[in-house]
Amino acid sequence: MNLSVIPLINTILSSFVNEQADLTCPKVPISVDTLTGSFPFDGLAQFPANYDCGIGFKIPTGKVLKFKVQTQADHPGDKVVIRDSIGTLNEFTSPSSIFYAAAEKATVWVKTESSSSSFHFTWEYIDVSGFTDIEKPSETIIPLNLTANHYYRFQAISQSITLLTASLSGGVDSSLKNIYVYDGDDLDSKFVGNLEQFLKNKTPKSTGRFLTLVNFYRLPSDSYLLVADYSQYRNYDFVILSKEKRYRINKSASTYGNEVLPVTVFYCVDSNETYLTDLKFGNTTQENFW
């Protein structure tokens, strides 16, 4: 968004601020019995200094909770923060934001130090039990533009499965935060974080044979996903190629015993024919090519 537009947005929002709103903090956690709602009830409202309110939400299996958050805050100590079911704190500073909270719980905190900020958020429980499943085996590569109202189920050959991502830009893809990971074979399984969080785990793998991915935000991604059987490989890497770009890459890997193989996967997104011009092995006993 053009920065010159933000003051105009804030001016428009100011004209709708309700300075007489009921800001009483709910004491009882909100459940699916209240499918939709808002706080404050009458819309964007100005909050007093030193306000501190945490509103709990119960999210049953098969549901996600969609939040729409409005903020108009100039003081850094005035904020809206949503804590999700795995304890991640998500702070909202944009004039308007959307966030999806997975089962089983979430807490929305509104905190202020000044008396000059205004906030409002709405919630809506969404049933995801009717989403269509797309089943993929391990050793699969797919673009991460996941289809709306679908979830992607990946199955390991043996005990557990892992994921790697790569993009043409080679940089950090912020859209990975929009893809949610469930440790199991559907959206009733345990939510373990977004894809960016999952990949940062010391051991990024499923506890069983399945992992499930879904994108509730319907936003695009320029990354690709490699799904692999965790028991077969260690030290693996994933590189995206394009015929429009030249690459010179130096990679190294180590072999651990006889059962674990290092792998580098090169995948070209726009060519049916890809070849290496130079490949050297040092102290190599076994090579695998996909």
Automatic annotation (TrEMBL):
Residues 38-128 form the CUB-like domain. It holds the Pfam family CUB_2. This is CUB-like domain-containing protein. The gene is Cnig_chr_V.g18547.
